[in-house]
Amino acid sequence: MADLDLSGLAAKHGGSPSLRGYLATPPGDGPWPGVVLIHEVFGLDDMMRRHADRLADLGYLTLAVDLYSEGGARRCLVSTMRAMLKGSGRAFTDIDVARRYLAESDQCTGKVGSIGFCMGGGFALLSARAGYDAAAVNYGQLPKDLDEALAGACPIVGSFGRRDLTLRGAAAKLETALTKAGIPHDVKEYPAASHAFLNDADPGSRLMRTLVRVTGFGHEPDSAADAWKRIDVFFGEHLRGPRTESD
């Protein structure tokens, strides 16, 4: 497990000049399928690193890209959210730089998936047609034109919480759109869960911890355990094995 300087590769593709990431490597000998992890709104914090470590333990070479590399959340949050809502911008380039790093690595089989949480879930959904073999969308915002965003998308596994009032009806909408598009998928809404239910700890700051408690966001162990199992099974189905010319 190591912090990674992606600035050289980013410079070649128009990404952030100081792009960084966190690379979690599975135990044993590779190569392994790769996964780009896209963090939630709080940034690439210890919680996101633990998610990356968890995926590595499951056998996925996981690169968590830091979308706030150019100055932290205070300087980068607004522009990053604006890029997600617009569907274009440097954040998407930085995510693609992470994908390229994995795809070109000798440690990777060539199969690359993505996983996103909260804000990152929205990015994972919008990037699902950008060269990935599978995507995991966890309580991510749906774009206004969902059908257009899903055109040509890779297989998608999605997890949402029924108690998440910010995404009411999102699971059903995504299920309907994926079925209509003929995209392999597994979408599930958990009755006992709210937003950020895969996180096993609250955000670091006192203000954010208070916000999480007031809104009811946060960990729901049973739902989280099932969601992680589904993600692993789905990724296992779509990411295991080398990429072929027909992929």
Q: Report the mean per-residue pLDDT as an integer.
A: 91
Q: Termini distance?
A: 29 Å
Radius of gyration: 17 Å
Give helix and strand order, one letter per element, not per position: EHEEHEHHEHEHEHEHH
For the largest sheet, list the strands in their spatial order.
1-2-4-3-5-6-7-8
Helix percent band: 40-55%
Using the alpha-carbon principal axes, give the shape.
globular
List low-pLDDT spans. none
Please give the largest β-sheet. Answer: 8 strands, mixed
**What is the tally of beta strands?**
8
β-strand amount? 15-25%
- Which structural class do you get from the secondary structure elements? alpha/beta
Structure annotation, total helices: 9
List the helices and strands and how they pair.
Layout: E1 2-5, H1 7-13, E2 20-24, E3 32-38, H2 46-57, E4 61-66, H3 72-86, H4 90-104, E5 108-117, H5 119-126, E6 134-138, H6 146-149, E7 156-161, H7 170-181, E8 185-190, H8 206-215, H9 221-239
Parallel strand pairs: 3-4, 3-5, 5-6, 6-7, 7-8
Antiparallel strand pairs: 1-2, 2-4
